[in-house]
């Protein structure tokens, strides 16, 4: 595979940004082993955004010959006060994350937990203290929005460690490509700023698209905020949801007729369904024109925005294809020992 072919795989959607493409090309041209990392908080059950959109990008990276690592951020989960700071539950759910990603992507992916890294890296805590001298409380507080916190919230002292832990993880794992959703950008830019001051090579930062939640977005000023979230069950299609639940959630999803960007149903078709299925059939009653098949997202977009595709027909099609996509992972999780008990504990 040529450099251009590998680069095209890495840059294809759902990738939204690479900082910088020139640095990435140089890595690919070098012929050396390229180490990647994406960090995941173990904050709840996996959904279409956290498993499928992320997983599709990881598949691209594997195909491009990148060494992919999924970092299961158990200590980050704890200090961010997720899952009730129940360490046993965090570890049990980490096991399920590993199983789900392996099922979805394959066995080419490496997994490591924060608790494992911190015990195995002798200089981890020395490096953490040193790099901490190159940032300020104010900048750390701004970066903490990546952890789902705003600057106005009262933070625990431990939560101030979150960003510096995250960027020190990148160094400790000897990462060439630091990968995350667009909400991870502030942390990666902090790493790129601090690493040269430490004499460390800054990572290339790769950011992928975040799937919007199913509910109408919150508008603050002129900006909309919407993200599929584990903490808001109505906003997310979880990978363990059965078809009836998926259909019900999507039937209630916000689906404005005049837009495709930010429209959760259209974005599911764009970022989840079409990357997986070559053709998509939308089933309709004969009196409304009968079934119609689309060979690409742009065809569907044209039909929807022109008004020839009814939102309820679109929602049902999305539910059918999403169900097919998540079914193998769902069956694996539901057949695994203890998964239903983990979900019950999370829900309580």
A few lines on this structure:
With 348 residues, the protein is of the alpha/beta class. 49% of the residues lie in helices and 12% in strands.
Describe the protein's topology.
Layout: H1 3-11, E1 15-19, H2 21-30, E2 36-41, H3 48-63, E3 69-73, H4 74-79, H5 87-105, E4 110-113, H6 114-120, H7 124-132, H8 137-143, H9 162-172, E5 177-181, H10 185-198, E6 204-208, E7 218-220, E8 223-225, H11 243-251, H12 264-273, E9 280-282, E10 292-294, H13 297-306, H14 311-335, H15 339-347
Parallel strand pairs: 2-3, 2-5, 3-4, 5-6
Antiparallel strand pairs: 1-6, 7-8, 9-10
Helix fraction by DSSP (H/I, runs of at least 4): 40-55%
- Known CATH architecture of the largest domain: 3-Layer(aba) Sandwich
CATH topology of the largest domain: Rossmann fold
The strands making up the biggest β-sheet line up spatially as 1-6-5-2-3-4
- Pattern of helices and strands: HEHEHEHHEHHHHEHEEEHHEEHHH
- The level 1 CATH classification of the largest domain is Alpha Beta
Using the alpha-carbon principal axes, give the shape: globular
Structural class: alpha/beta
Number of DSSP-assigned strands: 10
Number of separate structural domains: 2
Mind describing the biggest β-sheet?
6 strands, mixed
What is the CA-CA span between the terminal residues?
49 Å
Can you give the mean pLDDT? Answer: 93
* Gyration radius over CA: 21 Å
Strand content range: 5-15%
Q: Which regions have little confidence, pLDDT < 50, spanning 5+ residues?
A: none
Separate helix tally: 15
CATH superfamily of the largest domain: HUPs
